[in-house]
Design goal:
17 strands; Peroxisomal Thiolase, Chain A, domain 1; globular; 26% helix; alpha/beta; 5-stranded mixed β-sheet
Length: 356
């Protein structure tokens, strides 16, 4: 699927991170592997620290905290929110939708749309696509895209494959119409036949959670997890990214009619440093143009890593400069997507810490 959007812009970006910072070195004894092996893995993968929410924290807590920050600092007015999209794979409840919970907690107007989208590492781009489409409606002038996950709650602390990566975050993006054309080029692929590569097997209606699914066991690779925890086939994920992402990016650049030199930054989802280094080499992209520091600083917060990447690495420069950026997400589904968009002249691009 390919699409071009015009007369749309991202006017503000806020990232919300939990205050609890956990260091990899302090978790080495959690795993059933020799410490020296884990420390070697730390160097290769770029593990350092990650941000994890405190017990009892849900997605809506981070989102409400961030939205109130925008209201209090005059970046946004409640009456101007015509639609709110929440992209998450860790909702507060099965029902109601968490976007409605956030709307009600904040006291937003009733004459608006609330929508939850169940997507992971590619969710930010799918959320932007939906936001751009909503802006085609006559009654919608401003869309709030909230991408948030507290996925650490569904990863075993004894799983060295996944837990050192796990990070929690919420991000808020203001999307609105623009008088300038600002073409945004977008493509998207999905392959549900490989859904097993990234999965939480139990806890849904197919396999409801019970005492058996909660049992922690060795899954044959030395990692301990239950069926209610995230399971990731790391080798298959790596192969998927290396095979599918480069041709997707080439296709999008051709569709947009631009070359390598026209892209200022490749701001991709951040699974781990090793995977991104190999991806940059395969694509022939200079490392200076593809930041790889988010997992090291904050952990992998699923689709949130893309806006966290943007704010962490460009930050205040987005207030006064414009950069042509290639965004890309790839993960559960399997789903992979990319976008070429001009980012800049924003009203704000900030990171805040939430007491959760």
């Amino acid at each position: 699927m390919k699409q071009v959007f015009r007369n749309k812009k991202i006017s503000g970006l806020l990232t919300v991170l939990p205050e609890q910072e956990v260091w990899f070195d302090d978790e080495v004894t959690n795993y059933s592997f020799p410490a020296h092996q884990s420390m070697r893995l730390k160097t290769i993968m770029g593990y350092e620290r990650h941000r994890i929410v405190k017990p009892g924290t849900a997605v809506s807590d981070l989102c409400v905290f961030g939205m109130n920050h925008l209201f209090e600092h005059g970046y946004l007015r409640k009456e101007d929110v015509d639609a709110m999209i929440l992209v998450t794979q860790s909702p507060d409840y099965y029902m109601p939708p968490t976007s409605n919970v956030i709307q009600g907690t904040l006291g937003l107007k009733r004459d608006m749309l609330c929508m939850d989208i169940n997507q992971g590492c590619c969710g930010y781009l799918l959320g932007l696509m939906q936001a751009f489409m909503l802006l085609e409606l006559e009654s919608v002038n401003k869309v709030i895209l909230v991408n948030a996950d507290v996925i650490s709650k569904k990863v075993s602390k004894q799983d060295r494959n996944s837990y050192p990566l796990a990070g929690d975050a919420a991000t808020i993006t203001i999307v609105e119409n623009s008088e300038q054309q600002n073409p945004v080029y977008f493509n998207l692929y999905m392959d549900g036949s490989r859904n097993h590569i990234l999965k939480i097997p139990a806890g849904g209606f197919r396999l409801p959670a019970n005492s058996k699914t909660a049992e922690i066991r060795d899954c044959g690779d030395g990692n301990l997890r239950s069926q209610e925890h995230l399971v990731m086939d790391g080798a298959e994920v790596f192969q998927f990214v290396q095979q599918e992402v480069p041709p997707m990016i080439e296709e999008l650049k051709s569709y947009a009619g631009i070359g390598d030199d026209d892209i200022d930054y490749y701001l991709f989802h951040q699974p781990n440093r090793f995977m991104l280094e190999k991806l940059a080499a395969r694509m022939g992209v200079a490392k200076e143009k593809m930041p790889m520091n988010i997992v090291t600083e904050y952990g992998n917060s699923s689709g949130c890593t893309i806006p966290v990447n943007i704010v962490h690495n460009l930050g205040d420069a987005l207030n006064s400069h414009v950069y042509k950026c290639c965004l890309a997400g790839f993960g559960s589904g399997l789903t992979w997507s990319s976008m070429i968009v001009d980012l800049g002249f924003m009203e704000f691009a900030e990171q805040i810490i939430a007491p959760y």
